[in-house]
Amino acid sequence: MEKVLEVNNLVATFTINKKEYEVLRDISFSINKNETLCVVGESGCGKSVTTLCIMDLLPNNGRVVSGSISLNGTDLTKLSKKERNSYRGKKMGMIFQEPMTALNPLLTIGYQLCENIMLHRGLDKKEAKKLAVEYLEKVGIAQAESRLKQYPFQLSGGLRQRVLIAMVLSAQPDLLIADEPTTALDVTIQKQVLTLLNDLKKEMSAGILFITHDLGVVAEIADRVIVLYSGRKVEEGSVAQIFKNPKHPYTIGLMNAVPNVDLDEFEIQPIPGTFPNLTEEIKGCRFNPRCKYAHSRCFEEVPCTIEVEPGHFVSCYKAEEEMQ
Ligand SMILES: Nc1ncnc2c1ncn2[C@@H]1O[C@H](COP(=O)(O)OP(=O)(O)OP(=O)(O)O)[C@@H](O)[C@H]1O
Q: What Pfam families is this protein classified in (predicted)?
C-alpha cells in the first residue's frame, strides 16, 4: 500500500512562562492512499496540535523539536518556510469544525472556489468556473451554477461544509485533514457529510486524517484509529481491533463511556480522575494516576509499543504481560 503521510517520532512543545513543555511525545503513524485514519482522545490530548504540526501552523510559542513528517516521501520538516507554504492548500487541504473560519463572508462562493482552482490548478477563469460547478455537484450541491453567486451566509452550515470540502478537493490534495468537521452539524447533516467523505475517499487518491472525539463518528468513517492520551499514542489498530478488542486501559475506558442502547442495563462508566494538564509532571505512563491496573513499573518508565496482533499496537505494561 502506498503511504501518503508518514509521521515518525514527532515531539512538539509549547513554551509557557519561559518554560518548555512537551505537548506531543514521540508520536508515529502513517496514512495510506484511500485510507481514513481517525485520531481520538479526550480534549487536550493533542489531536489538533498534531494537525497544526503537519500543516506548519503552530502558534508562536509552539515548535516541533524532533521527528519527521513526510508527505509522499518528502520530509516537510526539512523544507524552508516558503516551500512549506506551497504545500498548504495544494498538497494538503484542511476542513475545520466551523467552515466560516475558512470562507470569506464578503466574497461569493464562486469567486472563492474559482480563485482557489486558478491558484492551485493553473487554469484560466472560464475553465476554473466549469470545474467549480463540477466540484459543487461532486459534493452533492444541487443547482451548482446558481450557488456560485451566493455568499457563505446564504447557505446552511451543512452546505457551507460541503462548499469547503469542494474547495479543498478541487486542489487535488494528497492529504485531506478534517478537524472535527461534523461536530457543529446536526445529526442528519453530520451523517450526510460523513457519507460524502466516505464516497470521495474511494474516488480520490488522497489519504484522510480525521480528528474527532466522537467514537460514533469513528465507527462510521475510520479504517484505522490511533488513540492519544496526554500527547502520547497509547494504541493503534484497525477500527474493528480498537472497538472489538481494545487493549489499553484508557481505550477500554473510552469504549465503556459510550452509551449502548442495545443493552437493557447499560451504565456509562466514566474514566475516574481527571486529564492531566500540559504542565503536570508524571513519571512513567501518563495514564498511571487514573489506571486501576497501574503497578510499580508504570510509575517508573514509559512502556514501549508492542504489536499484540498484526497491525494492532499498544503501549502498556498490562498488555505486554498478557502477551507473555
Ligand atoms: N498556544 C498554546 N499555548 C500553550 N498550550 C497550548 C496552546 N495551544 C494548545 N495548547 C495545549 O496543548 C494541549 C493539546 O491541545 P489540542 O488543541 O491539540 O487538544 P485537542 O486534543 O485537539 O483537544 P480538543 O478536542 O478540545 O480540541 C492542550 O493541553 C492545550 O491546552
A: ABC_tran, oligo_HPY
Domain that holds residue 159: 105-172
- What distance in angstroms lies between residue 277's CA and the mean position of ligand 1's atoms? 9
When comparing pLDDT for 251 and 193, which is higher? Answer: 251
Q: What is the pTM of this model?
A: 0.92
Q: What stretch of H or E contains 216?
A: helix 215-221
95 pLDDT higher than 70: yes
Q: Is 46 in the pocket of ligand 1 (CB under 6 A)?
A: yes
- CA 68 / ligand 1 centre spacing (Å): 21
Kindly give the number of the ligand 1 atom that is closest to the alpha carbon of 277.
29
Task: Find the 85 Cα to ligand 1 centroid distance in Å.
Answer: 23
Least confident of 69-78, 100-109, 196-205, 244-253: 196-205
Residue nearest to atom 19 of ligand 1 (CA): 44
Tell me the pLDDT tens digit for each residue of 179-197.
988 877 778 878 888 888 8
- The DSSP element (H or E) to which 169 belongs, if any, is helix 157-170
| One domain for residues 186 and 165 | no
User: Helix, strand or coil for residue 283?
Assistant: coil
Residue nearest atom 13 of ligand 1, based on CA coordinates: 44
In a domain, 71, yes or no: yes
CA of 187 to the centre of ligand 1 (A): 26
Q: Is 44 in the pocket of ligand 1 (CB under 6 A)?
A: yes
Please count the structural domains in the chain.
Answer: 2
Which residue's CA lies nearest to atom 9 of ligand 1?
Answer: 49
Q: Is this prediction's ipTM beyond 0.90?
A: yes
Residue 12, CA distances (Å) to 16, 61, 62, 274, 284 in order = 13, 11, 7, 23, 19
Residue 75 CA to chain centroid, in angstroms? Answer: 19
Q: Is 240 helix (H, G, I), strand (E, B) or coil?
A: helix
pLDDT tens profile 98-114? 877 788 999 999 999 99
In a domain, residue 310? The reply is no
Separation between Cα atoms, residue 307 and residue 162, nearest integer Å? 38
Q: Whose CA is nearest to atom 6 of ligand 1?
A: 14
